[in-house]
Amino acid sequence: MKLLSVIIPCYNEDEMIPIFMEEMRKIEASLHKDLCFEYLFVNDGSSDGTLQEIRKVHQKYPNVHYLSFSKNFGKEAGILAGLEEAKGDLVTIMDSDLQDPPELIPLMYQKIQNGYDVVAACRSDRQGEPQIRSFLSKTFYWLINRLSTTEIKSGVRDFRLMTREVVDAILSLKEVNRFSKGIFSWIGYEVTYVNYVNRQRKAGKTKWNFFSLLKYSIDGFVNFSEIPLNISTWIGVISFVLSLLAIFLIVIRKLFWQDPVSGWASTVSIILMFGGIQLFCMGIMGKYIAKIFTETKKRPVYIIKEKA
Ligand code: UDP
Ligand code: MG
């Protein structure tokens, strides 16, 4: 019988843990002939009763294990810790808020048996999500798919069923700045999707706000595209050529029409504009340098305080 590891990153989800477990037990029962389940809760430095709730389910069910971080390291760290710890022949990553429908697991398993290496869940809509978040997400996917050679499909979640081989491939990427959506796509393999209608969180609230999403998107760009660097180079080249042309025109004007250019307002505006462009391009470079800095420090992605 195959072992399926279910990784559940949790941050302040005390209300959700028992509800999640209850739902999962049903799926586990329906698959008991084919799969043996192992649950791996990753408590990402929650400040509420999440760890206590996890301890309770751990005591209740022998196949529930957990890791607890020393502080909040983010969902990416939770995913990595879970993947490193998972022993399963098959592995899946699920949110604890039941926005990743457990009912999809049997269908996903069927597709794995048909020979796919990865079966990812894909939301076919963004119903119930704030309009502004949908709009920004769509813009992000549109942009990143133009700027990066790694394709990142809109609506695809971290919720996916993977074979051991795929998990080992993910773990072979040793980067500290982890952007899983990109990593999942970058490794390749035979991937298929199961579509489902967006779900609302059952309890608790989302951990994302405008700024954390913006930071996450920028991380995505910096980790999976070098094009922003090329863009800044091209802005530089184009403005250099344009200014050469302008100088040439001014010299001609002065020589033939004795008409020097007047007006400091225009000069100041142009200086300000180029100052802005330069700072913008330096900012882009700074982002990449900051990533190099954190990569070279080789700090661990997470620290485990408690494990069972
Ligand atoms: N999460 C986490 N660490 C964090 C933020 C979130 O482990 O710093 C977990 C969270 O508990 C949940 C999952 O990641 O199980 C998805 O988070 P959320 O539901 O807030 O994201 P959304 O569904 O709104 O994209
Ligand atoms: Mg959620």
Fraction of residues in helices? 40-55%
Give the averaged pLDDT, no decimals: 90
Order of the strands making up the biggest sheet: 7-5-6-4-1-2-3-8
Please state the oligomeric state of the protein chains shown: single chain
Verbal overview:
- This protein is an alpha/beta fold.
- 52% of the residues lie in helices and 17% in strands.
- The chain has ten helices and eight strands.
- The protein has an eight-stranded mixed β-sheet, sandwiched between helices.
- Helix 5 packs parallel to helix 8 and helix 9 (227-257) packs antiparallel against helix 10.
- The longest helix is centred in the last third of the chain and has 34 residues, at 264-297.
- The chain starts with a strand and ends with a strand.
Produce a short descriptive summary.
The chain is α/β, with parallel strands linked by helices.
Which features does this protein show?
binds magnesium ion, single chain, alpha/beta, 52% helix, 10 helices, 308 residues, eight-stranded mixed beta sheet, binds uridine-5'-diphosphate
Secondary structure elements and their pairing?
Elements: E1 2-10, H1 16-30, E2 35-43, H2 50-60, E3 64-69, H3 75-85, E4 90-93, H4 104-113, E5 118-123, H5 131-147, E6 156-163, H6 164-171, H7 180-186, E7 191-196, H8 210-224, H9 227-257, H10 264-297, E8 304-307
Parallel strand pairs: 1-2, 1-4, 2-3, 5-7
Antiparallel strand pairs: 3-8, 4-6, 5-6
Bound molecules: uridine-5'-diphosphate and magnesium ion.
